[in-house]
Amino acid sequence: VTNLSNVLMVVPNQYVLEVSASVPGRNPSQIRRALPFAVEEFIASDIETMHLASGAVRAGQPVACQLVERRLLENWLACLNAVGVQPGFCVADAHLLPHSAEEGAVLFDGGQVIVRTEGQAATLDRANLMLALQTLTIERLTLINGDLSEIERAQLENVEVAFDSRGSSTIEALASFWRGQTDINILQGAFSPPKNRGLNRGWGVAAALAGAWIVIAWGAMLAEAWWADRQAAELDQEARTLYGQLFPGEKPRNVRRAMAAKLGGTSSAEGRGFVALTADVAAVLPKAAGMKALDYVSDKDELKTEISVSSFTELERLEQQLASRGVQAQLQNSLQEDNGVRAYFVVREQP
Fold first, then answer.
1. Are 92 and 11 within 8 A, CB to CB?
2. pLDDT tens for residues 217-248?
3. Which uninterrupted H or E stretch holds 327?
4. Burial class (CB in 10 A: 0-12, 13-18, 19+), 170
5. Of 14, 19, 16, nearest to 65 (Cα)?
6. Strands (E), 145-215
7. Distance CA 164, CA 45 (A)
8. Rounded distance, CA 228 to CA 226, Å?
């Protein structure tokens, strides 16, 4: 692997869960050991399947944390490793945008926008931008590589709007904001890069960053497809071996259906699937609510989603409406915020 000292790996913000945890402890070492247990309540999956990266750890202060699915991060790094690239930093794209307690930024990227404020980061459809901006309490807003309509600007009466044109593409805009350091480098722990690697400034960074972005975008899909095909092939072979032991001499085309027939039943349905589950949630979601994140687990036919609603009453109504559609919404966690309630659901077909 070529040790490139000027490679920054940028990953889509929607794959990164950002939380803040208050952990008691007398020193940073104790706090770091307790962090996984403190953030476990914010995720629907097993904490062991997640990679946890943290910001500065100080006793008596909340710790900013970012969680990424471990297998996904491993696949991204494997793709870069395969082409001889070893990044020194890994950052969620939204975290490159400028922000402060009073100021936020919006980067326009075709049909999507990346929004960044103090303590918040999100990737949204362009159509949902104003819903998000109206929930923010900021004094200034910087629009990067895009603009609001006259009607949208009129809705931001008390917000000073500035414009910034950065390069001809999203990747160039992100590269121009990089200053060689970040609040949280996702490459921590087992994923830490070799030491003694600085990150040079200039357009050399932009070129390397652009290459890493493209490799990740395409390589991650190829890696996941390859992994899925391999797992499917291995499971199919195991199933055929077991069937052959139980019923010698038979070689069915579809082992699952054949086994179901032997047991006196029929094969089960494939489940509702990502599109159907997403449509069910969208159909009952109130207009003022927002869907902040989606994660579909295909082998369990589960949709993990983060939803923002106005009240707990609206949250209960949403669960009831999903139940009436034959969908089970299991509430994992809910948090009271200034602007409403943030809830984490696991949505699946009712048994």
1. yes
2. 555 555 565 666 666 667 667 777 776 766 67
3. strand 327-337
4. buried
5. 19
6. 160-164
7. 39
8. 5
Question: Tokens 């990089």 belong to which residue?
Answer: 178
Q: Cα–Cα distances in Å, from 315 out to 305, 338, 340?
A: 13, 16, 10
Calpha distance 266→150 (Å, rounded): 59
DSSP label of 193: P
Nearest to 13 by CA among 224, 293, 221: 293
Give the Cα separation of 349 and 163 in Å (integer).
46
Q: Which amino acid is at 127?
A: A
Q: Please tell me the number of Cα atoms within 13 Å of 209 on its side-chain side.
A: 29
Phi/psi for 22 (5° steps) reads -100, 115
Return d(Cα 302, Cα 295) in angstroms, integer.
8
**pTM for the structure as a whole:** 0.52
Residue 227's Cβ-count burial label (10 Å; 0-12, 13-18, 19+) is middle
- The H-assigned helical ranges of 83-169 are 129-133, 150-154
271: tokens are: 């489940």
